[in-house]
Design goal:
Length: 296
């Protein structure tokens, strides 16, 4: 399948932040088997992330408040990208920042690198505008997308936050800004309280809810978005099986990303790829395009 001129051998990739930059899982997963590897979010300078505890299980999922901890763009370029280039898979680098200038500098630094696509995490708090996420205001989404497209040498997928009133307005704003693709959904803001300690379960008080609990919401948002824009969508949110992946594809997604399932089962993605191939063979499907967006 093709996303913004990038041909993937299959539609399965990890969701950013759940797979490191591939090294941690390479002993379990043949990276050559994946449609793409999506790196953990990278910022201009190293981010320490939030205080611990910052991960907590919840019913049918988990809450994470890691805070986009990462070693920064220099380490990604010097260590992670050379490692990923050893494999026959597409490389998508997720970019995060706290100001527009931060995003643009990272995107410029990546312009000369052998990567296939940029995924821009606009769920990050915009410190210049009181901490509201970049992705919660259509005007800001269109603006930052336009500015990134001016600097990017690779196709750009904007990763959308679900913590908005109308996902289609945000999606259309990103498309208007020149996005080549969209990735959705990011995590949903949630909370747990430890009744024995009478305290919040994660130090940050709130965190991002992911896993099977959010799949119905993610699926609905992907379906709405695919009907609202004409650019490809990478769907994610609670995918654990080929059946889950097929639901997103039938809703209109071109590709899918697997996140929380990787923590429970490091073999999740190759298993999903095998199950997809089996489903296609058993149902006489030669190309997933035959069933993409089939529900109306």
């Amino acid at each position: 399948m093709d996303i913004a001129g990038i041909t993937l051998k299959n539609p399965v990739m990890p969701a950013s932040g759940t797979f490191g930059s591939g090294q941690e899982y390479s002993g379990f997963v043949d990276l050559n088997r994946l449609g793409a590897v999506v790196t953990k979010g990278v910022s201009l300078v190293p981010w320490e992330g939030n205080s611990t505890p910052r991960i907590m299980e919840t019913a049918s999922g988990m809450i994470n408040a890691v805070g986009l901890q990462n070693p920064g763009i220099d380490v990604l370029i010097e260590r992670d990208l050379p490692f990923l280039r050893k494999f026959d898979t597409k490389v998508i680098v997720n970019v995060c920042g706290s100001t527009v200038a931060d995003y643009l500098e990272v995107v410029e630094r990546l312009a000369g690198q052998e990567i296939d696509m940029l995924e821009i995490n606009i769920s990050c708090p915009n410190v210049e505008h009181g901490g509201i996420a970049f992705g919660q205001e259509p005007g800001m989404v269109e603006y930052i997308t336009k500015e990134i497209k001016k600097k990017a040498a690779q196709p750009v997928s904007m990763k959308l936050t679900p913590n908005v009133t109308d996902i289609t307005e945000i999606a259309k704003a990103a498309e208007a800004g020149g996005a080549d693709a969209l990735s959705l959904i990011n995590t949903i803001t949630g909370m747990r309280i430890d009744i024995k300690k009478r305290a919040f379960s994660v130090a940050n008080k709130t965190g991002g809810l992911s896993g099977p609990a959010i799949k119905p919401i993610a699926l609905r948002m992907v379906w709405q978005t695919c009907r609202a824009v004409s650019i490809p969508v990478i769907g994610m949110g609670g995918i654990q099986s080929a059946e889950d992946a097929l639901e997103f594809i039938m809703a209109g997604a071109t590709a899918v990303a697997v996140g929380t399932a990787n923590f429970r089962n490091p073999y999740a993605m190759p298993e999903i790829i095998e199950e997809l191939e089996k489903y296609m063979d058993e149902n006489g499907i030669k190309d997933l395009q035959e069933i993409r967006g089939i529900v109306s």
